[in-house]
Amino acid sequence: MNERFDAIVVGAGPAGNAAAYTMASAGLKVLQIERGEYPGSKNVQGAILYSDALEKIIPDFRDDAPLERHIIEQRMWVLDDESFVGTHFRSDDYNKPPYNRYTIIRAQFDKWFSSKVREAGALLICETTVSELLVDGNRVVGVRCDREGGDIFADVVILADGVNSTLARKAGFHAEISPGNVALAVKEILFMPQEAIEARFNITEDEGVVIEAIGKITDGMMGTGFLYTNKDSLTIGIGCMLADFKGSPNRTSPYAVLERMKKHPAIAPMIAGGEMKEYCAHLIPEGGFYAVPRVFGDGWMIVGDSGGFVNSVHREGSNLAMTTGRLAAETAIAAKEAGKGFGAASLKAYKAALDESFVMKDLHKYRDMPDVFHRNNQFFTTYPELVNRAAKTMITVDGVDKKTKEREIFGDFRQKRSLVGLMGDAFKLWRAFR
Amino acid sequence: MHIVVCIKQVPDSAQIRVHPVTNTIMRQGVPAIVNPYDLFALEEALRLKDSFGGKVTMLCMGPPQAEEALKRCISFGADDAILVTDRAFAGADTLATSYALASAIRQIEKEQAIDLVFTGKQTIDGDTAQVGPGIAKRLSMQLLTYVSRIAELDLANRTITIERRAEGGVQLLKTRTPSLITMLENTNELRFATMPDMIRAARYPVRKWNKDDAGIEDLSKIGLKGSPTVVSKVFGPTPRAVKAEQIPVDKATPRDIAVNLIQAMFTQHPALEQDMLERAPL
Questions:
Q1: CA-based, 20 to 30 A from B35: which of A103, A298, A373, B108?
Q2: Do residues A404 and A350 share a domain?
Q3: Are A300 and A278 members of one domain?
Q4: In chain A, pLDDT over 70 holds for what percent of residues?
Q5: Whether the predicted model's global pTM rises above the 0.90 cut
């Protein structure tokens, strides 16, 4: 086939859509190739939409995007087996437009985002797998699809093919993903009458609540659970490091962790009566700063999950995906305008833009975090238990004086974790968060 | 040779759910697909085109978003696509739909003579199998339903020979063209679209016809007005009363499991045992 494109985008998730939309809007001739039956059919996320990243791509997205609820309250829970200690942050500031975060249902959101991409002029082909990159010397010149006549050529190829990024691996752009660098998350969407959700979470129409939870629900593995309110459904999920599932002494499976979380006495009443509508599982690249591969070369750039752009500490991913997609697209647009080709020398501007943005700054800030948590599972086992016990000791009124209670709590901590251990943990956390 | 293939865009019934409280069908978020039965009609038409050359025109009546279904058919190799879409068609039952489609086919005929019209056996959302025969009747075409194979097409003498699945056997029928064929499922395997066709489909400007373009003469015969069918009630099927019997297989050998299973079946259905014994070669 003789037809040539300015850019080929592999994948129609947030990163691929952001890239395709931005380039097509600037008049580039864009072909986007998606493996799934339709955009969104294979895409999984919690899902919280962060307005800022999308606003920079489609400023008026609120006009017609399928948004569930804007978030007005964030709860952080630390759970042991029976109880939880938590903080809730609710602010009426979050109730004033323009809203900062929304819950979304990805199947619907991705369909919308993709329709915008096509309106902008990009050509979308679904149900087509890109089997390899076409390379001329060192230079990526196009893609080979799993269809007859499937070799297609372009000036630049943007890899937005997701966490596994088989393309980048095949081309040798990055190594095989390691179980220590990815989390496996499972989630369910539970259907429930709108009124029940609003009563249970103390919210009115369009207002939403986010709960993030750590603690014994992950059975000693490094991970977090979450519960989000949609319009007439709840999203509940939990994710742990793949290496931890692999090495779990109890051979705990992902669905078992989720079932356990759903049965927790603090969570069960909130989801009671929910009817499961959707069940999904997904890998999340959580290797952080050190796991980000080389992100550009002659004729190619990597964006989104394929490049490992996830801030696991703040549970942010789709906004990094959209931002990396946009920055890669802007690099391609500038390269076309400059007329100096799409070699690595032109595309290195992408890396520079990433470094300048919150994407690499945040990943750098938390660069040691995955390692610290991974090596110290007491953060997910011992501490949640201790904190909950301390709260219970302090709050229970039983004739014991408060001074004695304090001593009891301190003794508890000392018994479970040596003084050196406590100090060490505090130091590690301080270093990782600094 | 010119073939018209009629398709319908339907909600993927495998993903439809009935609302637990209101008993209404929840279409939200359910993907729209080409009626699966119609794809057998499309593939058969494409095979004839492969053998005899010519043109395959796709025809669909539906809302504007049905354009996607037609584009999908283009990706498999259909040549042209027409979407008959007009608010006046809303609420059509099979009678009104066949009237509108027949009228559109007459318009297509004005552009190029038609040898064959294909439809699927039925749709997965209506399941009536009435629209194909309705079109044939209105166009005075030979009607061939539940066709499983096209044995011979003689364009020069304008005859076609087909096999059709009938109760108790297969009928071999020969008739003259133009005729309308409703194609049986699983009679062919849909081809894998080529990349150039996928790209052509993504760009294809589907022709959109309103009621005038489709040559509708009698407005009382289309849409809700032209539809005598009344849906009086929608309800979910009641679950089966008989629960499945569970046969424990703990520590049993495969042979024991098989024996237990067969015995359980014979206990439930003694006639089956009798029948098996009679047929068994001794």
A1: B108
A2: no
A3: no
A4: 99
A5: no
> For the domain that residue A203 is a member of, what is the CATH number?
3.30.9.90
* Alpha helices (H) along A272-401: 318-338, 344-356, 358-365, 369-375, 382-395
Question: Is-contact A76 A212, C-beta < 8 A?
Answer: yes
**Which residues span the domain enclosing B26?**
2-221
Tens of pLDDT, residues B1-36: 999 999 999 998 887 777 666 666 776 668 889 999
The tens digit of pLDDT for each residue in A292-324 reads: 999 999 999 999 999 999 998 888 999 999 999
Task: Tell me the CA distances in angstroms from A157 to A3, A23, A115, A135, one per residue in order.
Answer: 15, 12, 21, 11
Taking the C-alpha atoms of residue A383 and residue A368, their distance in angstroms, rounded to an integer, is: 20
Count of domains in chain A? Answer: 3
Contact A149 B196 (CB under 8 A): yes
| Res. A277 pLDDT band, cuts 50 70 90 | confident
One domain for residues B210 and B275 = no
DSSP characters for A193-207? -HHHHHHHTT--TTE
- Contact between chains at A147 and B29 (C-beta distance less than 8 A): no
How far is it, in rounded angstroms, from Cα A427 to Cα A413? 16
Residues in B 208-247 with any Cβ partner in A closer than 8 A: none
Range(s) of the domain holding residue A337: 4-67+104-175+293-356
Number of structural domains (chain B) is 2
pLDDT in tens, A139-163: 999 999 999 999 999 999 999 999 9
By a Cβ cutoff of 8 Å, what residues of chain A touch chain B?
1, 3, 31, 37-38, 41, 105, 107-108, 123-125, 128, 145, 147-152, 191, 193, 275, 277
Task: Report if residue B133 sits inside a domain.
Answer: yes
Q: Do the beta carbons of residue A152 and residue A3 sit within 8 Å? A: yes
Average pLDDT over residues B60-78: 96
Strand partners, A233: A191
A31 with A55, same domain? yes
Please determine, for the modelled complex, whether the ipTM score is greater than 0.95: no
The answer to the question of residue A396 being in a domain is yes
- Give a yes or no: residue B232 inside a domain: no
Average pLDDT over residues A17-43: 95
3-state secondary structure of B94: helix
User: Are residues A194 and A262 both part of a single domain?
Assistant: yes
